């Protein structure tokens, strides 16, 4: 059997198109064309019934964990029953995803994608301890190239991989866990103990952290250096000049508050000496103003990066979101049904039209 590195199991044609492509291939006898179409119709009906039953199982097991439910429960499942339903849900969902030709993302691949730099230069992190269970599957990985600006004028082309489809299941820990962390339950953007399902399209591989609702952002090492190093560099020469005269500097500051007579009596500092140190005081005040202005500028730049990051998150979640929670099941069931029937139709067609019998390996190579 040949090994292919440039294609996946996913068939990028609709089932109806696959049937027509087989007919248009011209290898079927005219008398067999309608029989072939009848076979495809019966096969489709069979798999539709089969996957409809799988959909009902998914919905029933998801019911206690559905954050969007608007129906009442006749019976409240026990904790043991909830755990069994959760286990069944995760297993059945994984089966459906694999039948839809999705691929599980390995833990090391997820961590590697987190380590890659994002288009928005901010430090991001996800606390995976918040989750009791996670499931991450993708389908379709392809490279894409974008043009970004560097140093405001230089354009740089950047090539990276995107996942054409991403399915994510997140089961949050219960309320007691978050209360122990000092979190207010009413302030959380999710409901503890519930399961959240997401289906996305065209997600950059290095921006996977955007998909997690508990992503934290902060300064990069470069931001910290830009914030602190210039301030320290500007402060050192002035501090060297000021430290020997620190006592007089305190007197000058007190002079501005309590007046000259009180300071000269208390600290034994003459007004002439304080006047001599006025330039030093002005230098110190200038340093404070300059460093304050620089700090405000750097902090404003950092906040602007945060705004850009939040916009990127919004664009990702809004424009690339296909479905959420219970609606994801319908999309995945339909996809699994399509993929399963397309594979059987193609296998049946090649077996029907090939001049000699074919093995499984030979079928896979066609």
Would you mind describing this structure in some detail?
The strands form 2 sheets. This protein has a 5-stranded antiparallel beta sheet. Strands 2-6 form a two-stranded antiparallel ribbon. Helix 1 (15-24) runs parallel beside helix 11 (326-353), helix 2 (30-62) packs antiparallel against helix 3 and helix 2 runs antiparallel to helix 11. It starts with 14 loop residues before the first helix and ends with a helix. The protein is flat and about 105 Å long. 56% of the residues lie in helices and 17% in strands. The model has no long low-confidence stretch (mean pLDDT 80). By secondary structure, it is an alpha+beta fold. It has helices spanning 15-24, 30-62, 79-99, 107-115, 175-180, 221-242, 246-258, 260-267, 271-276, 278-319, 326-353, 360-365, and strands at 103-104, 123-126, 131-150, 154-172, 195-204, 215-218, 321-324. The protein contains 12 helices and 7 strands.
Concise synopsis of the structure shown:
The chain has helices at 15-24, 30-62, 79-99, 107-115, 175-180, 221-242, 246-258, 260-267, 271-276, 278-319, 326-353, 360-365; strands spanning 103-104, 123-126, 131-150, 154-172, 195-204, 215-218, 321-324.
């Amino acid at each position: 059997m040949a090994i292919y590195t440039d294609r996946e199991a996913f068939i990028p044609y609709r089932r109806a198109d696959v049937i027509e492509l087989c007919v248009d291939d011209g290898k079927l006898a005219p008398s067999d064309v309608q029989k072939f179409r009848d076979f495809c119709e019966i096969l489709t009906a069979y798999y539709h019934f089969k996957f409809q039953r799988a959909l009902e199982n998914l919905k029933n097991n998801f019911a206690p964990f559905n954050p969007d439910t608007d129906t009442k429960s006749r019976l409240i499942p026990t904790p043991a029953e909830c755990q069994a339903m959760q286990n069944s849900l995760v297993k059945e969902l994984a089966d459906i995803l694999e039948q839809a030709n999705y691929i599980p993302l390995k833990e090391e691949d997820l961590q590697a994608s987190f380590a890659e730099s994002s288009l928005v230069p901010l430090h991001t992190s996800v606390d995976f301890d918040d989750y009791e269970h996670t499931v991450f599957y993708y389908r379709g990985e392809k490279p894409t190239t974008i043009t970004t600006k560097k140093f405001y004028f230089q354009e740089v082309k950047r090539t990276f991989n995107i996942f054409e489809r991403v399915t994510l299941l997140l089961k949050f820990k219960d309320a007691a866990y978050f209360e122990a962390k000092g979190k207010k339950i009413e302030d959380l953007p999710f409901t503890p103990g519930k399961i959240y399902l997401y289906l996305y399209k065209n997600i950059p591989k290095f921006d996977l952290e955007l998909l997690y609702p508990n992503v934290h952002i902060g300064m990069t090492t470069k931001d910290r250096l830009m914030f602190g190093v210039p301030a320290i560099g500007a402060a050192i020469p002035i501090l060297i000049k000021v430290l020997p005269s620190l006592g007089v500097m305190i007197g000058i500051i007190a002079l501005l508050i309590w007046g000259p007579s009180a300071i000269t009596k208390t600290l034994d500092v003459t007004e002439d000496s304080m006047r001599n140190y006025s330039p030093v005081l002005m230098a110190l005040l200038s340093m404070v103003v300059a460093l304050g202005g620089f700090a405000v500028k750097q902090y404003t730049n950092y906040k602007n990066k945060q705004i850009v990051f939040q916009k990127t998150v919004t664009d990702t979640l809004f424009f690339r979101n296909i479905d959420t929670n219970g609606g994801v099941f319908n999309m995945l069931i339909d996809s699994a049904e399509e993929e399963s029937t397309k594979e059987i139709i193609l296998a049946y067609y090649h077996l029907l039209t090939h001049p000699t019998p074919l093995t499984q390996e030979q079928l896979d190579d066609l």
